[in-house]
Design a protein that fits this description.
This protein is 42% helix and 22% strand. With 421 residues, it is of the alpha+beta class. The strands form 6 sheets. The chain has a 5-stranded antiparallel beta sheet with strand order 4-3-2-1-6. A 5-stranded antiparallel beta sheet has the order 7-8-9-10-11, with helices on one face. Helix 1 runs parallel beside helix 5. The relative contact order is 0.10.
Length: 421
């Protein structure tokens, strides 16, 4: 799937954008990392420049805002559109400077005036150049031969055409399908013919669909791609439709990813709440059995506690275990809590020297009620979380269509013409 326009594509785009020559720029908007430029005149046109494309668009993305670039180019008239060399760099020439759009990595847009950068989308420095306001504009370095010249094809292996000549994989593959790439001169001539079609026409703008999904957009059909052809009157229309579908899918995927993340958190919370319910219900049963065991043996435990108090007062607990019986086992004594640890009727209990067996039973029954209260609260939390999860699943469909619904189709009047600036 094509994710960005190639140099071949930009040649066709530049050719079609020459229809804007003589018209003024009157609006510039930022839409995330993209720019939306309105060109005035009798029929207003919108140019979108993003990391994947430059083209006329009939769609306005959501969440736009005025761009600082407008103060530099408002009212400037387009005087030309060109690719200064065979690379993914398009220049929109104006009577007030040049807007340079680099569909490279990193993607960037710069306004050059008399060789100096006046505005730039992203200032940065690399080992090859520095881009920033007030700096001389330096074109991006090129690490390939210029394919416009026949001698550039000489000695280039078939598998290296895309890299060594800067053609890219798709154009190199198409050349080899059309010419077999056995003779470099024949390959160059076919390349020149394809470039002529892209620049001068006649173009046959298409989206090529494979397995029901748009996979490729080009100013002419590519035999190497195949698939079903959807034809358009202009290449700009084809590009706008193709990348709109791509952007819609990307927005849907991001929405789905966000929803999956939120759903995973909710499911994790639901699992924790269910574990809390099980833990507290088990604890409530354990506390209640302990309280009931104490209540069944109140007299016996009263005698044992009295004996334990006497031993504690005498500071001699050596005979503590001898206080046990057939249904009572003395486990030990907690010096800090001053409590007797025992197992009565098979249930582990803890009896404080300062409390009666009845008080100890009440304490266990209260602990059972508290555990049941926590289990009930956790169950209510589960219900709320499950409701929220169900709502999230319903919301998923809405989010996936949200981008489509938020995009405006531009006809005669723009909904944002009175956008505050």
């Amino acid at each position: 799937m094509k994710t960005s326009l190639s140099t071949f594509d930009l040649l066709a785009i530049a050719s079609e954008l020459t229809s804007l020559i003589g018209r003024p720029i009157d609006k510039v908007y930022a839409a995330g990392a993209s720019l939306l430029i309105r060109v005035g005149g009798r029929d207003k046109s919108f140019i979108i420049a993003s990391r994947s494309r430059v083209s006329i668009t009939a769609r306005v993305p959501p969440n736009i805002e005025p761009s600082p670039l407008r103060q530099y180019i408002d009212g400037c008239r387009v005087s030309g559109v060109l690719l200064p060399f065979f690379d993914r760099v398009l220049r929109i020439e104006m009577d007030c400077g040049s807007l340079i759009i680099e569909l490279l990595n990193p993607f960037n847009i710069a306004l050059e005036r008399e060789g100096v950068v006046k505005w730039v989308l992203h200032s940065y420095r690399s080992k090859d150049r520095e881009i920033g306001p007030g700096k001389p504009y330096i074109p991006p370095p090129r690490f390939f031969r210029d394919p416009r010249f026949a001698d550039s094809f000489l000695g280039v292996k078939r598998e290296s055409l895309g890299r060594e000549l800067g053609l890219g994989r798709d154009l190199a593959s198409e050349l080899c399908v059309r010419t077999d790439c056995g003779d470099p001169l024949i390959a160059w001539r076919e390349f020149r013919s394809m470039i002529a079609l892209a620049v001068m026409g006649p173009r046959e703008p298409v989206i090529q669909v494979i397995n029901g999904e748009p996979a490729f957009v080009s100013p002419i059909p590519f035999k190497s791609i195949g698939g079903e052809l959807i034809r358009f009157n202009t290449f700009n229309e084809a590009v706008d439709e193709y990348f709109w579908r791509l952007e819609e899918r990307e927005a849907a995927n991001k929405a789905a990813e966000t929803i999956r993340g939120e759903a995973a958190k909710l499911e994790s919370s639901i699992r924790e709440a269910r574990e809390a319910v099980a833990h507290n219900l088990e604890a409530a049963q354990r506390y209640r059995r302990a309280g009931e065991a104490i209540m069944r043996n109140l007299y016996q435990l009263s005698e044992v506690l009295n004996a334990a108090r006497r031993l504690y007062a005498a500071r001699d607990l050596s005979g503590l275990r001898e206080l046990g019986s057939s249904n009572l086992t003395i486990i030990g004594f907690d010096q800090v809590k001053r409590s007797l640890k025992a197992v009565i009727d098979g249930e582990p209990v803890e009896l404080g020297l300062s409390e009666s067996p009845g008080d100890a039973a009440s304490r266990y029954f209260e602990a059972a009620k508290e555990a049941e209260r926590k289990a009930k609260a956790a169950s209510e939390t589960i219900r709320k979380l499950e409701d929220k999860l169900n709502q999230l699943n319903v919301e998923a469909a809405t989010r996936e269509t949200g981008f489509r619904d938020s995009v405006r189709i531009v006809y005669e009047k723009e909904w944002f013409e009175r956008f505050p600036e």
